[in-house]
Amino acid sequence: MIGLGLQELPTLNAALNAASAACVVAGLIAIKRKRERRHKRWMLTAVALSTAFLVSYVIYHTTAEPKANSFDGWVRTAYLAMLFSHVVLAVVVVPLVVVTVVLALRDSRAKHRRLARWTLPIWLYVSVTGVLVYLSLYVFQ
Known about the structure:
It is a single chain. The chain is mostly helical. It has a single domain (6-139), classed as Four Helix Bundle (Hemerythrin (Met), subunit A) (Up-down Bundle), CATH 1.20.120. Helix content is 82%, strand content 0%. It contains four helices and no strands. The protein has helices at residues 9-32, 36-63, 73-105, 109-139.
């Protein structure tokens, strides 16, 4: 975060979310192609990017004023529904990712695979909706 002002953190957060989502998709493609080492590298990169996002997010939201939205009608309803599902699943996905990674590193493949079938789509949803929240608040308003 060195060299970035507080006002640039939302853009950084969106970039970290987008990059994390791309890595998760690349990791999924790698494992579908039975490229385990490549899958591991992509997924650990996604974890690192998501961790950087979380640190930046906490710094921003503990120091900046909340950003208000000016949405009305059905757009407001759609935005709040997306935001609500994003926030709830963001809380859920953190321990899911941690446990899924620990199972992988312990080579508990069957357990890892069972949990990853839930973790990956939730993680991807949270990353993508994080970018959409950013676009909604900072680009489309």
